[in-house]
Write a structure and sequence with these properties.
The longest helix is centred in the first third of the chain and has 7 residues. It is built from two helices and 30 strands. The strands form eight sheets. Strands 6-5-4-3-24 form a five-stranded mixed β-sheet, with no helix packed on it. Strands 10-9-8-7-23 form a five-stranded antiparallel β-sheet, with no helix packed on it. A hairpin with a 5-residue loop joins strand 20 and strand 21. The protein starts with a helix and ends with a strand.
C-alpha cells in the first residue's frame, strides 16, 4: 500500500488493491509501486445450517455448511469420535448464493437448495449424491412428506421442487404463485394426502396449496385477510396442515380444501428436522448432544448421557474470508475495518 495512508482513502484504485485476498492471515506480499497485499482480513466462514447425525461407521458427525464471500463453497464434515474433519466442495456453481433453508431427512440425508441447484448429501457415503439445476433461486423452506419425498419452495417467485430419494428423480414445478414483489416462503408442510402448502410474506401474507400431480397452485387467503407479515403453516400428527394468516385467522388444510377454525389449542407438530439458515440440530442418533459449534474459533463440544465430561473437538477449514463491509485509515498508520458474516473487526 502507499506510504501515505490518507492517499488510500482518496484513491479508489488503492482501495481495490487493499482488498486483494491472500492465502493466509498475516501474509504480506510486495506488489510493487508502494503497494502490499496483506492477505484475507477475516479468514473465517459463517455456518448456514448445522446438523448432528451419524456416518456409515456409526460415528457421530456434524455437517456444517460453510459460507464466505464466494457463497456456500463447501460442506464441512466433523467426526466427533475420531476428531478428524473433511471439507467437501460444493459440486455446482454457487453464483455467490448460500442456503436459506436445509433439511435432515428420516433417511439420514442432508438437503438444501441454493444457487438455483437442489442438492443431496449422504453422510454415510460422505459425499454429495445428487445435485441438479432448478428454477431460480434458493429455498426459503423445506419439508419431508409421508412418503419420504423432499419438498422445497424458493425465493423470489415461489418455485417448487419435489425430490424422490428412492428414484433420484427431481420434479421442478417452476414458479407457481405470482406477486409484484419478491416472496419469502418461511413455512412449508404436506398433508397425509401428499398436498403441499406454504406460507408467504413479507409484503403481504398468503397461503398456497399445491396439488402434487397436476402442479396446480391455489391461494387460500381471501384478500381481506391478507396482512403485512408472513403467513405460516405446520403439519400436525393428525395428518392435516394448519395455517395462519399471520394474525388471528386460522385454517385447517387437507386435500387442498380449507376450513376456517379457531386457533388450535393443543398442536401436535410432526417432527421434521428442517429450518432456516440458522438451523442447528443438536441431537445425535445415540443421544449425545452438540452443545457448542464455533466456526470462528474452530471447535465444537459434545456432551452425552454416558460421558463423564464434555468432549471438545477442534477442526479446521479453508476460507477466503467474510465480506468486507468497511475500511478506514486509523490514526496509528494502520488499516482497520469490519466484515460480515461473521461480524468481525480487523486491524
Amino acid at each position: 500500500m502507499p506510504d501515505s495512508l490518507s492517499s488510500i482513502v482518496r484513491s479508489g484504485a488503492a482501495l481495490g488493491m487493499l482488498l486483494i485476498a491472500a492465502v493466509a492471515m498475516g501474509a504480506t506480499e510486495d506488489l510493487g509501486d508502494g503497494f502490499r497485499d496483506h492477505g484475507v482480513a477475516t479468514p473465517v466462514s459463517n455456518h448456514r445450517g448445522t446438523v448432528a447425525t451419524q456416518d456409515g461407521q456409526g460415528h457421530g458427525v456434524v455437517l456444517i455448511w460453510l459460507f464466505d464471500n464466494r457463497g456456500a463453497y463447501a460442506l464441512l464434515m466433523v467426526d466427533v469420535d475420531t476428531g478428524t474433519s473433511r471439507q467437501i466442495a460444493t459440486p455446482f456453481p454457487t453464483s455467490g448464493d448460500c442456503p436459506f433453508a436445509s433439511l435432515l431427512s428420516s433417511r439420514n440425508r442432508y438437503y438444501t437448495q441454493f444457487g438455483s441447484h437442489f442438492a443431496e448429501f449422504d453422510p454415510v457415503k460422505g459425499a454429495f449424491t445428487f445435485w441438479k439445476k432448478t428454477t431460480p433461486r434458493m429455498a426459503m423452506s423445506m419439508t419431508e412428506d409421508d412418503a419420504g419425498q423432499i419438498w422445497a419452495v424458493s425465493y423470489p417467485n415461489s418455485g417448487v421442487v419435489c425430490f424422490n430419494p428412492e428414484t433420484q428423480e427431481l420434479r421442478d414445478y417452476g414458479w407457481v404463485h405470482k406477486e409484484t414483489w419478491p416472496q419469502y416462503q418461511r413455512y412449508a408442510a404436506t398433508d397425509d394426502a401428499g398436498w403441499f402448502y406454504f406460507g408467504i410474506g413479507n409484503t403481504t401474507t398468503q397461503i398456497v396449496a399445491l396439488e402434487p400431480v397436476t402442479g396446480m397452485a391455489t391461494p387460500i387467503l381471501p384478500e381481506n385477510e391478507r396482512i403485512r407479515g408472513s403467513a405460516s403453516v405446520y403439519r400436525d400428527m393428525d395428518g392435516k396442515v394448519y395455517g395462519c394468516n399471520g394474525s388471528d385467522k386460522w385454517y385447517e388444510l387437507h386435500r387442498g380444501k380449507a376450513k376456517k377454525i379457531p386457533k388450535p389449542q393443543k398442536p401436535q407438530r410432526k417432527p421434521i428436522i428442517a429450518g432456516s439458515q440458522s438451523l442447528v440440530h443438536r441431537v445425535f442418533p445415540d443421544g449425545r448432544r452438540l452443545t457448542v459449534c464455533d466456526t470462528v474459533e474452530r471447535y465444537l463440544i459434545v456432551t452425552g448421557p454416558k460421558d463423564a465430561k464434555p468432549k471438545k473437538v477442534t477442526f479446521d477449514y479453508t476460507s477466503e474470508g467474510a465480506h468486507i463491509m468497511g475500511v478506514a485509515a486509523a490514526p496509528d498508520d494502520t488499516i482497520c475495518g469490519g466484515t460480515a458474516f461473521p461480524m468481525r473487526f480487523f486491524s
